[in-house]
Design a protein that fits this description.
About 25% of the residues lie in helices and about 25% in strands. The protein is α+β, with helices and mostly antiparallel strands and about 400 residues long. It folds into 3 domains: about 80 residues, RNA polymerase II/Efflux pump adaptor protein, barrel-sandwich hybrid domain (OB fold (Dihydrolipoamide Acetyltransferase, E2P)), CATH 2.40.50.100; about 45 residues, E3-binding domain (Dihydrolipoamide Transferase, Irregular), CATH 4.10.320; about 200 residues, Chloramphenicol Acetyltransferase (2-Layer Sandwich), CATH 3.30.559. Strands 9, 12, 15, 16, 17, 18 and 19 form a 7-stranded mixed beta sheet that branches. A 4-stranded antiparallel beta sheet has the order 1-8-6-3, with no helix packed on it. A 4-stranded antiparallel beta sheet has the order 5-4-2-7, with no helix packed on it. The longest helix is centred in the middle third of the chain and has 18 residues.
Length: about 400
Amino acid sequence: MIAIKVPPLGESITEATVSRWLKKEGDAIAAGETLVELETDKITVEVPALKAGRLASRAKGEGDVVAVNDTLGEIDESGAGAPATAPATAAAPVAAAAAPAQDSSVRSAPAARRLADEAGVNLATVAGTGRGGVVSKPDVIAAMTPPAAPKAPAAPVAPRPADGTRETREKMTTRRKRIAENLLLAQHATAHLTTFNEIDMTAIMALRERIKEKTEKEHGVKLSFMPFFAKAATLALKAFPSVNAQIDGDSIVYKHYVNLGIAVASEAGLVVPNVKDADRLGILGISRDIAAVAKRARDSKLTMDDLTGGTFTITNGGVFGSLISTPIINYPQVAILGLHKTQDRPIALNGQVVIRPMMYIALSYDHRIIDGQQAVLFLVKVKELMEDPASMLID
């Protein structure tokens, strides 16, 4: 019997919830096939079979909370359907010889190399999705796992159960509990304040309309407004470094880089993956990286690297129709920029009333280290850059 253990879940994460078993007891299992999905407060972790066989038992059920190294179940390696293997002996290390010699030039994480060696996967054949093309453990798992059958569409939720039940109680998931804890922490541990401004989107809309087709055709990038806001934010952060700082005890830590968090709504709840070193990227580079992390978020393929190290966050409630809101700081960051719906409104321009596409923007900030003047001027800087997008090219 081979025990199925809860793998390391990432820095500071000690427990997870069993969200879904993909195999029933007695099912045949191929090496590398995902057996069970675990949900942490940050990511969904897939636990693969390191050996072929049959699922002998499931020690934990869906909804159970488990800790690192807990036993989830057992695999019977000798089960029917498992490939026959000769017993390895010290004198004849056949299994070791079967593992491919890994190409040392392939950049890969230590966990990815260990799993690849155990499962006999050649890292040179695995596409790396990590930063700079580094092969991560999820990449190896994806290479080992056969394509999953398409999921059946979820049944629509009825407004009221057929049996007449008026209330239903559902246990919070690990992720939802941690989201709730973090939001309360942000409110209680910071001097939370929000300031507002508005942007005339005419110029940026005209620019996007003019270049979006060419950009998609020549660079394969579908250009949204978010990369423009991201670029404007990185330039504004350069002008006002306290907005990109962090409090550590009685010290202020100024970050001379921008790991830009993008709030993404997924089925499992809100996640905030971040684009590393966004201040070093142009608008096309930011657009590519945002699209990549957003896809990983929707596919539940985010890594711990995606979710750690953020210095500033942007959230866009406008995609859901929000006209104005006060976003909550993504603690321990000290500020968050909120975007909203673009809506035609009458404004006074050069002594005349005109109709323009306008967007309210909001900056929630920690008043302990960001003064009101800095917060207001930060939003003014974002407004000026978005209303004159050519000025973003000067940097």
